[in-house]
User: Fold this.
Amino acid sequence: MIAKKKQKRIDNYKIKKFNHNNFNKDTLKSSLITMNKRVFVAYLKFHFPLNGQKIRKYQDKYKVLESLDEAVLINAISRTKALEIIYESKYVIPFVGALIAVVVVPTIIAFGDSFIVDYPVYKNKIKSGAVVVASLCAVAVSVFITHSIKKDKNVLALLVSFRELLEQALAAKKNDEK
Assistant:
């Protein structure tokens, strides 16, 4: 737990150091190969945002991408594809959570009597409390799932966009060699 918090602080420090002035072949190569996935995604969001950037900046960054060695480009493409798979498979867990929430709430409402003690005085209060708690849990799970899916879709789109840039740079490099 402490190691994760320490790593998160280190990652946040690295992310805060991003700026457009230190974008060059060496820093890009190092970033593509050595950054952990959280910092790597933040790096891509900063330097290759989905909402676009000025043409001149984009052209300069694309030229830097093209200047990378073929091995680095291939490594970066494979790493980006692996991250895409990770972010695609993250949808399975929220889907299962939503499915469980959708099944549990009606079950508690329909069969709640068999789970509740046989004290008529408390039966209605306990049942209504269980329904409220189950409903709140279902809503919380739904909100969490919606938020995480939106966030992951943006990251996935960013990764796909960047991978396509890398593939274009690799194709251009191979065409130049011919």
